[in-house]
């Protein structure tokens, strides 16, 4: 299974990019947001990938971060959400926006994606809500390096990337702060929200603390 590709952009289509890896072209489907972030033809590029294999289909899907890839896989686990719908959700919200929407149960944000109806959006937020803090705490929101390795080879991970188990409660505060920082919140506002949430319930674990802090940070009104 191909887990990552490093090569050069051959061309960019409407919903895909062709990556030349040592003379072999890999057609990789990506979201609009990811496509817009990629360099032009001839430039070095690297993407994490996930391969969908069925009787009548074999597709590679590409992502700029492991968090985006993890959300793609989780979204596809929901009944009624295929690769096209999962890509649309990620293209509309981005991985951080998906994390925030699902953690807060904001199904209207999910519904904003093309082709996603209210029932599907509600199912996504309901079934994935408990998994959102785990993905957020992965600390893998950084973009994949866009440089090209010396030999330009295809890189496959030794084992699938798995989200870490939730840490004991004494690690909840630093892990929550790290997750909020990955979402772009300033250290001060993140610390204030975490402190307020812990003041309300000192026994919150990492998952609960992230969710409580996000509710406090959500725009009012």
Automatic annotation (TrEMBL):
<comment type="function">
    <text>The RuvA-RuvB-RuvC complex processes Holliday junction (HJ) DNA during genetic recombination and DNA repair, while the RuvA-RuvB complex plays an important role in the rescue of blocked DNA replication forks via replication fork reversal (RFR). RuvA specifically binds to HJ cruciform DNA, conferring on it an open structure. The RuvB hexamer acts as an ATP-dependent pump, pulling dsDNA into and through the RuvAB complex. HJ branch migration allows RuvC to scan DNA until it finds its consensus sequence, where it cleaves and resolves the cruciform DNA.</text>
</comment>
<comment type="subunit">
    <text>Homotetramer. Forms an RuvA(8)-RuvB(12)-Holliday junction (HJ) complex. HJ DNA is sandwiched between 2 RuvA tetramers; dsDNA enters through RuvA and exits via RuvB. An RuvB hexamer assembles on each DNA strand where it exits the tetramer. Each RuvB hexamer is contacted by two RuvA subunits (via domain III) on 2 adjacent RuvB subunits; this complex drives branch migration. In the full resolvosome a probable DNA-RuvA(4)-RuvB(12)-RuvC(2) complex forms which resolves the HJ.</text>
</comment>
<keyword id="KW-0234">DNA repair</keyword>
<comment type="similarity">
    <text>Belongs to the RuvA family.</text>
</comment>
<feature type="region of interest" description="Domain I">
    <location>
        <begin position="1"/>
        <end position="64"/>
    </location>
</feature>
<dbReference type="Pfam" id="PF07499">
    <property type="entry name" value="RuvA_C"/>
</dbReference>
<dbReference type="InterPro" id="IPR000085">
    <property type="entry name" value="RuvA"/>
</dbReference>
<dbReference type="InterPro" id="IPR011114">
    <property type="entry name" value="RuvA_C"/>
</dbReference>
<protein>
    <recommendedName>
        <fullName>Holliday junction branch migration complex subunit RuvA</fullName>
    </recommendedName>
</protein>
<keyword id="KW-0963">Cytoplasm</keyword>
<dbReference type="Pfam" id="PF01330">
    <property type="entry name" value="RuvA_N"/>
</dbReference>
<dbReference type="Pfam" id="PF14520">
    <property type="entry name" value="HHH_5"/>
</dbReference>
<keyword id="KW-0238">DNA-binding</keyword>
<feature type="domain" description="Helix-hairpin-helix DNA-binding motif class 1">
    <location>
        <begin position="108"/>
        <end position="127"/>
    </location>
</feature>
<feature type="region of interest" description="Domain III">
    <location>
        <begin position="168"/>
        <end position="221"/>
    </location>
</feature>
<dbReference type="InterPro" id="IPR003583">
    <property type="entry name" value="Hlx-hairpin-Hlx_DNA-bd_motif"/>
</dbReference>
<keyword id="KW-0233">DNA recombination</keyword>
<keyword id="KW-0227">DNA damage</keyword>
<feature type="domain" description="Helix-hairpin-helix DNA-binding motif class 1">
    <location>
        <begin position="73"/>
        <end position="92"/>
    </location>
</feature>
<dbReference type="InterPro" id="IPR013849">
    <property type="entry name" value="DNA_helicase_Holl-junc_RuvA_I"/>
</dbReference>
